[in-house]
């Protein structure tokens, strides 16, 4: 039985179990040996399993001629694999479609919620731009979530501010105690801190939007300085409302007015330099591809520097308010905060009146002749 | 034999790493010392970068008050980068800035970055500080 031993060696050398290959081998040895009996039984064993695997066509030869059968099996294997892959792909496609539809549904719900919020804010008399771009649209046409959030929060902040003004007015009219006034003043100042925090987040989201004052009422924008009011302007609003001022207080307030003016001038000059360098950094010929990326990256750095200026300006405003509250007594501070709150409320009311006048042609217009 | 060679090699490597570490530390300390030395040379010393606009704002703030500050432009200094890291360490993690400049020293002592300067100025403590350092008269 030399043939069987050589076949065993051949099997060992192959190392992989491959029934069809072995069938081939057996077939070869059959050809070599010429004796059918020694290999008949393994062949009979292989044949039924082969039949189970393939969908046999009636034309398929039942003779164990190794090569033809092997290529048929290979073709069948390929067909099987292709069908299986197609099934997988179809399944994955169905899953993706399902996920996409779910996403659409949630976005639709969010959109309805946002529209409700805007309707509510509009009723409050806030100035909101025309219905064409109802929410904030960046230049690329996409919605910036940080800015949308800021606009919503600012709407709530305004409501809160009006409420606090009411409380201050009541407290002053009813001659509340020092402690109560002190608490009210502290809560008002922390409310302003909230605003500055919101503005800092919005500056990170889109500094150009914030610095443009687009979120403010139209008349407020007349007095815009680096994304808000001038601190010296705040002093001009507050001080005339405070009647009994001691000499010491007058001196402190004058010093404060001077130092805030100096700080404002410094920041303005720094901002001028930033604007100039931004103008010179934008490439005049955008078709010059080589330098484009580098100069645009430098321009993006300027955007970050602008964020720094907005933050410093807000810091200056907050420091001015805090120092004023230190100079003044509780009653005076309450008066001052109320005066400021009323001033901005009047500006907002004026803005909404103005926008109503622009939109409604039947609004009575007084001509002074 | 082989073990001994291995041990010696390890010791040499460790010694090399340690000496490199000590050199880096001493370089940093050199820069800290240099910063401190420059800071005490004048009444008001500003560390700045010539292209930085916030540094420009700080320079204009002091000039507007009638102070003549000594300005060190770090981008014109060969060791500027190291000095910048030293200043960053000085400012610490409490600073809201991501950049080391501008930083101002008054009378040799660190005041800080732009937000600290503004806070002091609004609070009314900057002018007395300048007078004390002899940068302002009257």
Automatic annotation (TrEMBL), chain A:
Record SMART domains: BRLZ (SM00338)
Cellular localization per UniProt: Nucleus
GO molecular function: DNA-binding transcription factor activity; transcription cis-regulatory region binding
Keyword set includes Nucleotide-binding: no
Region (Disordered): 49-89
GO biological process, one term: DNA-templated transcription
Pfam families on file: bZIP_1 (PF00170), DOG1 (PF14144)
Occurrences of domain DOG1 (ranges): 147-357
Residue ranges annotated for the BZIP domain, each copy included: 76-111
InterPro entries xrefs: bZIP (IPR004827), bZIP_sf (IPR046347), TGA_domain (IPR025422)
Transmembrane is among the record's keywords: no
Family of this protein: Belongs to the bZIP family.
PANTHER family: TRANSCRIPTION FACTOR TGA7 (PTHR45693:SF7), TRANSCRIPTION FACTOR TGA9 (PTHR45693)
The protein's name: Transcription factor TGA7
Organism: Cajanus cajan
């Amino acid at each position: 039985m030399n043939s069987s031993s050589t076949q065993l060696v051949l099997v060992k050398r192959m190392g992989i179990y491959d029934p069809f290959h072995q069938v081939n081998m057996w077939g070869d040895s059959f050809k070599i040996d010429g004796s059918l009996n020694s290999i008949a039984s393994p062949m009979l064993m292989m044949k039924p399993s082969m039949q189970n695997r393939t969908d046999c066509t009636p034309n398929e030869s039942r003779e164990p001629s190794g090569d033809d059968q092997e290529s048929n099996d290979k073709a069948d294997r390929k067909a099987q694999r292709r069908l299986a892959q197609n099934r997988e792909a179809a399944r994955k496609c169905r899953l993706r479609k399902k996920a996409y539809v779910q996403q659409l549904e949630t976005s639709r719900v969010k959109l309805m919620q946002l529209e409700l919020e805007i309707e509510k804010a509009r009723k409050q008399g806030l100035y909101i731009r025309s219905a064409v771009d109802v929410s904030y649209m960046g230049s690329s046409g996409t919605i910036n979530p940080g800015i949308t959030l800021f606009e919503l929060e600012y709407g709530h902040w305004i409501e809160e501010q009006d409420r606090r003004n009411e409380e201050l007015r009541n407290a002053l009219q009813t001659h509340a105690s020092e402690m109560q006034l002190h608490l009210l003043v502290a809560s008002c100042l922390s409310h302003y801190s909230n605003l500055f925090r919101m503005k800092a987040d919005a500056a990170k989201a889109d500094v150009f939007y914030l610095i443009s004052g687009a979120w403010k009422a139209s008349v407020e924008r007349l007095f815009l300085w680096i994304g808000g009011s001038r601190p010296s302007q705040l002093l001009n609003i507050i001080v005339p409302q405070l009647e009994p001022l001691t000499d010491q207080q007058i001196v402190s307030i004058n010093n404060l007015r001077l130092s805030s003016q100096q700080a404002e001038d410094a920041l303005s000059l720094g901002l001028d330099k930033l604007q100039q360098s931004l103008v010179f950094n934008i490439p005049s010929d955008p078709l010059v591809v080589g330098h484009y990326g580098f100069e645009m990256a430098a321009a993006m750095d300027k955007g970050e520097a602008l964020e720094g200026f907005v933050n410093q300006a807000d810091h200056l405003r907050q420091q001015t308010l805090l120092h004023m509250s230190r100079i003044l007594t509780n009653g005076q501070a309450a008066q001052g905060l109320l005066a400021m709150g009323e001033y901005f409320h009047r500006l907002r009311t004026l803005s909404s009146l103005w926008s109503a006048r622009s939109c409604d042609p039947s609004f009575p217009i007084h001509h002074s002749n | 034999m082989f073990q001994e060679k291995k041990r010696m090699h390890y010791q040499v490597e460790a010694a090399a790493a340690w000496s490199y570490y000590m050199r880096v530390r001493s370089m940093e300390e050199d820069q800290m010392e240099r910063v401190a030395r420059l800071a005490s040379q004048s009444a008001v010393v500003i560390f700045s970068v010539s292209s930085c606009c916030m540094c420009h704002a700080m320079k204009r703030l002091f000039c507007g008050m009638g102070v003549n500050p000594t300005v060190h432009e770090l981008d014109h200094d060969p060791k500027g980068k190291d000095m910048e890291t030293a200043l960053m360490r000085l400012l610490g993690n409490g600073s809201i800035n991501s950049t080391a400049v501008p930083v101002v020293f008054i009378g040799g002592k660190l005041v800080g970055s732009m937000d600290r300067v503004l806070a002091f100025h609004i609070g009314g403590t900057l002018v007395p500080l300048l007078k004390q350092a002899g940068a302002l008269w009257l």
